[in-house]
Design brief:
The protein is an alpha+beta fold. The protein has one domain: Alpha-Beta Plaits, CATH 3.30.70.100. The protein has an 8-stranded antiparallel β-barrel with strand order 1-3-2-6-7-5-8-4, surrounded by 4 helices.
């Protein structure tokens, strides 16, 4: 049975247009280095999207993300002096780091359960901000139908009070098949996930359409938010 990480970090690095090739290089060069860091259970280097539609049209070459699940908080602290972090700091203009504690998870990512074994959906007992990560690998023959279904959900998302930030995340070069969102409260997330029509419709269609080869849904308590994204701290 996989161990549940004590802490998960999501770093979002901002670069200038001129530095985009350097960021792309770091995505390739740091992949194994991040996965081999002491205490790292799981690591992914991710492209991002601006979250306007959560489709490939959103691709945002100025923002790049590093997601790591750590055995212990001390491992995440040591990460701050690691070679990958130092490399990004030399050319990134901005960094946002969100520290998370897994609260509820189901599904797999690359065949693994990165946030611990499946548990019933948590959230009702979380006080304060909460975060959500979704990730799906699409059936190639059914991807077009999925992308057509997503834009109304993205438009609806922006109308929900309590949303602090949202972005697409995906493993280059495969596109933006995941999301990260940060919310003021469980109630705000529940309002979007279970009471907004477009999202409810997509959830209902998912088992019928068979869009996904693999999927994961996870929720987290927000331990800390450091730095800025586009000039502000979410």
């Amino acid at each position: 049975m996989p161990a549940t990480p004590e802490v998960v970090t999501l770093d979002v690095w901002t670069v200038t247009p001129r530095a985009v090739p350097r960021a792309v290089w770091r995505m390739a060069a740091d992949r194994r280095a991040v996965q081999r860091l002491p205490g790292a259970q799981f690591g992914k280097l991710l492209g991002t999207g601006d979250g306007t539609t959560f489709t490939v049209r959103d691709a945002d070459p100025r923002h790049w993300a590093v997601l790591v699940a750590w055995d212990r908080l001390a491992d995440a602290e040591r990460y701050e002096t690691s070679r990958p972090v130092r490399a990004w700091q030399r050319f990134a203009t901005e960094r946002l780091q969100v520290r998370l504690a897994p609260h509820g998870s189901r599904g797999r990512w690359s065949g693994r359960e990165p946030f611990g074994p499946p548990r019933a959906r948590g959230g009702a007992d979380v006080e304060g901000p909460i975060a959500s990560i979704t990730r799906a690998r699409l059936h190639p023959s059914r991807a077009a139908g999925f992308w057509r279904a997503v834009p109304p959900v993205a438009a609806e998302l922006r109308t929900v009070p309590g949303l602090r930030c949202a972005m697409g995340i995906g493993e280059a070069p495969l596109g933006y098949q995941g999301t990260f969102s940060l919310w003021d409260s469980t109630g705000a997330l529940e309002e979007f996930a279970h009471r907004r029509e477009a999202h409810r419709n997509v959830m209902a269609r998912t088992p019928r359409e068979g869009w996904y080869v693999e999927e994961l849904f996870a929720r987290f308590r927000v331990l800390d938010v450091r730095g800025t994204l586009d000039g502000r701290t979410p």
